[in-house]
């Protein structure tokens, strides 16, 4: 297939070892273009049309065209600045070519009498049509035109387009692109992979550009389906590998700890809570490790579900570890669990980084001996240096995904080498369905889709910082009515670099603006005891306003608080704003959340805050967050980097995704070799990691 007439040396295939002499070869390695298939999948960013020549007289201003003509005149002009000005003639008309930057070699090519092919945008200049810095090359009369569009690839300075084009052509020739998939798994009327790739690298001139640009062309569909299928297959393999592992079976006991705990609670479970508790208990009863994500909006009551799961595990004679990302959250859990479970005779240990010395040593020993049945602490501490006598269940709060490495660490904690603990992850950032289907294909998901009764709705308002006085007046009103308010700021650690007002300053300002109101301050650098004292005063209702950095994000439950002001709201992630907002509306009073922003806001910034004002549904917020940020950022680069999709789009390609998900098990069962080959083709060495 002719691609370009430009003569460049035929590239050598880069050595897989990474030892290759040419800078272009090295640049290819850097772009991950190692195997032939990698190059075959290195798709053009866009295309150039070198398949036709437009007579100069028929070009119009703004057209991107290729013309061919003979140089009539070429001279370096000095006014208004030094430039090379070339007059080109093709029999139909004249075109001026201007070069502000040019080399002697180029000047030589553009000598009078030379025949050149020129590509660029036509502009209407003072002296008629012209092109500034067009692409050009000398040609013989009658030089054939390209028969397909010319690909323009993602490249780098060391990797010229012409080199890359040749490399792709030869890789396409060599790459084993034989059809691996049986026809019944493929969506109807899609080209083969080879056809799709040949097409996308070198589309015919009459192709509909729109279908290439929006990726709706069947060639694109084929590619996206292949990619999604590879991902589903590898996740399914991982799931089946995990199913071979063994965990202690923890059947719930009639009249056991779980029922006693239920009997003690001051409330009844919601239907949603009952359902997820049953789903978890069914998993725990099996001798195959649970791998489940429990998702539910802020305030949906995940903690009590965790406690009930822990009760089942402890009843069966095993230990349970509950891990939280921060000390404040761990402490909150600890207090709740002590209140619920200690009266039932459960031994609970508390482990965080700030707990040191003898007290800590004693705790660690109680865990190792099995005397402590339930261990609450931060992820870091529990993972670092605690050994369990009989860990049967690990619960991880507020983390999307417990990584492979962390799971392997946890496995080591079990005294019984052949057994793996059950794993329950809890998250208040619900994962939209399409995302769950790809990134969590190996995970079971339970969802609490109902809030406990008696919650009042929160009204969210978005104000520019210029209206802060109004907002402060509103605080005064709330406090006068016996209510309380929060004023939240971005983290104090960041304030120096980001030039944000720090919490101390804001505290002083607000105290001055609100005479007669007790204003407290809470930030991450305060000693734990001081934090606890401030929190206690606020909880008891002795403090009207609490100024705080995001330490309160996951910390507090004060039903009398009815107003939340978030300063520099534009600095926070949507999910974080949602979490913060969840601190009000916990009682029966109508609550308000004010998002103060400091302008000017970008378009994205505006749509983010608007999303917050428009909905209080955590699922909807997560969906919009995903839409605004894209899956990579939404999931956090580290968590998703291994699985990011290159071609498929989770928001658009739902139908392809569902099909891939449906056919993956069939393919794995009926054509295991084809499935294996397909995964290897697409994921290469990454596949092994995904399985871990
Ligand atoms: P989250 O899902 O955000 O972790 P929590 O577990 O902290 O939510 O629960 C929020 C509040 O709701 C807590 O005070 C908790 O005791 C209470 N709660 C949980 N379940 C119920 C229920 N079924 N009825 C009433 N209150 C409940
Ligand atoms: Mg929680």
Automatic annotation (TrEMBL):
Keywords: ATP-binding, DNA damage, DNA recombination, DNA repair, DNA-binding, Helicase, Hydrolase, Isomerase, Nucleotide-binding. GO terms for biological process: DNA recombination; DNA repair. It comes from Azohydromonas caseinilytica. Residues 1-23 are annotated as: Disordered. Coiled coil: none annotated. Plays a critical role in recombination and DNA repair. Helps process Holliday junction intermediates to mature products by catalyzing branch migration. Has replication fork regression activity, unwinds stalled or blocked replication forks to make a HJ that can be resolved. Has a DNA unwinding activity characteristic of a DNA helicase with 3'-5' polarity. Belongs to the helicase family. RecG subfamily. InterPro entries: ATP-dep_DNA_helicase_RecG, DEAD/DEAH_box_helicase_dom, Helicase_ATP-bd, Helicase_C-like, NA-bd_OB-fold, P-loop_NTPase, RecG/Mfd, RecG_dom3_C. Its EC number is 5.6.2.4. This is ATP-dependent DNA helicase RecG.
């Amino acid at each position: 297939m002719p691609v370009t007439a430009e003569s460049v040396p035929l590239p050598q295939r880069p050595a897989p070892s990474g030892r290759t002499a040419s800078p272009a070869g090295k640049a290819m390695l850097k772009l991950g273009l190692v195997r032939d298939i990698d190059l075959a999948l290195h798709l053009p960013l866009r295309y150039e049309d070198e398949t036709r020549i437009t007579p100069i007289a028929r070009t119009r201003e703004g057209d991107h065209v290729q013309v061919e003509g003979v140089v009539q005149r070429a001279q370096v002009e000095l006014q208004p600045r030094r430039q090379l000005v070339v007059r080109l003639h093709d029999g139909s008309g004249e075109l001026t070519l201007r070069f502000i930057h040019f080399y002697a070699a180029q000047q030589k090519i553009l000598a009078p009498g030379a025949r050149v092919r020129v590509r660029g945008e036509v502009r209407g200049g003072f002296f008629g049509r012209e092109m500034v810095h067009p692409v050009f090359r000398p040609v013989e009369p009658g030089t054939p035109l390209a028969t397909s569009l010319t690909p323009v690839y993602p490249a780098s300075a060391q990797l010229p387009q012409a080199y890359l084009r040749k490399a792709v052509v030869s890789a396409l020739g060599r790459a084993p692109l034989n059809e691996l998939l049986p026809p019944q798994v493929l969506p109807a009327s899609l080209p083969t992979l080879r056809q799709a790739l040949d097409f996308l690298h070198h589309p015919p001139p009459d192709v509909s550009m729109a279908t290439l640009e929006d990726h709706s062309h069947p060639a694109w569909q084929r590619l996206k389906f292949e990619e999604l299928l590879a991902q589903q297959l590898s996740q399914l393999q991982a799931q089946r590998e995990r199913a071979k592992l063994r965990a202690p079976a923890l059947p719930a006991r009639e009249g056991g700890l779980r029922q006693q705990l239920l009997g003690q609670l001051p409330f009844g479970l919601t239907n949603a809570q009952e359902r997820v508790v049953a789903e978890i208990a069914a998993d725990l009863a099996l001798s195959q490790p649970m791998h489940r994500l429990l998702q539910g909006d802020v305030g949906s009551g995940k903690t009590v579900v965790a406690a009930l799961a822990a009760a089942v595990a402890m009843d069966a004679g095993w230990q349970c570890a509950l891990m939280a990302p921060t000390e404040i959250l761990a402490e909150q859990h600890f207090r709740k669990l002590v209140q619920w479970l200690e009266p039932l005779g459960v031994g609970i240990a508390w482990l965080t980084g700030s707990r040191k010395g003898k007290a800590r040593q004693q705790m660690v020993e109680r865990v190792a001996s099995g005397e402590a049945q339930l261990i609450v602490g931060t992820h870091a501490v529990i993972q670092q240096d605690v050994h369990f006598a009989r860990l049967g269940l690990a619960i991880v709060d507020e983390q999307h995904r417990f990584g492979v490495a962390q799971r392997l660490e946890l496995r080591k904690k079990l005294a019984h080498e052949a057994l793996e603990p059950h794993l329950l992850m809890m998250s208040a950032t619900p994962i939209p369905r399409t995302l769950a289907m790809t990134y969590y294909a190996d995970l079971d998901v339970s969802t609490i889709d109902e809030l406990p009764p008696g919650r009042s709705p929160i009204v969210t308002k978005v104000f520019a910082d210029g209206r802060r006085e109004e907002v402060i007046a509103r605080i005064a009103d709330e406090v006068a009515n016996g209510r309380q308010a929060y004023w939240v700021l971005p983290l104090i650690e960041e304030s120096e670099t980001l030039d944000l007002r720090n919490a101390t300053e804001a505290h002083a300002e607000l105290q001055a603006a609100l005479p007669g109101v007790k204003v407290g301050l809470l930030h991450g650098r305060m000693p734990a005891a001081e934090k606890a004292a401030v929190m206690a005063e606020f909880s008891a209702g002795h403090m009207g306003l609490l100024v705080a950095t995001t330490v309160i994000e996951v910390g507090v439950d004060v039903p009398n608080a009815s107003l939340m002001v978030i300063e520099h709201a534009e600095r926070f992630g949507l999910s974080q704003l949602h979490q913060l907002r969840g601190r009000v509306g916990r009682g029966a009073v109508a609550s308000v959340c004010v998002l103060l922003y400091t302008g000017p806001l970008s378009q994205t910034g505006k749509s983010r805050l608007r999303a917050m004002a428009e909905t209080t549904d955590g699922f909807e917020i997560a969906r919009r967050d995903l839409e605004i940020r894209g899956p990579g950022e939404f999931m956090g680069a580290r968590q998703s980097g291994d699985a990011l999709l290159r071609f498929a789009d989770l928001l658009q390609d739902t139908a392809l995704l569902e099909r891939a998900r449906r056919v993956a098990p069939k393919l794995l069962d009926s054509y295991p070799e084809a499935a294996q080959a397909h995964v290897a083709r697409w994921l290469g060495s990454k596949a092994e990691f995904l399985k871990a």
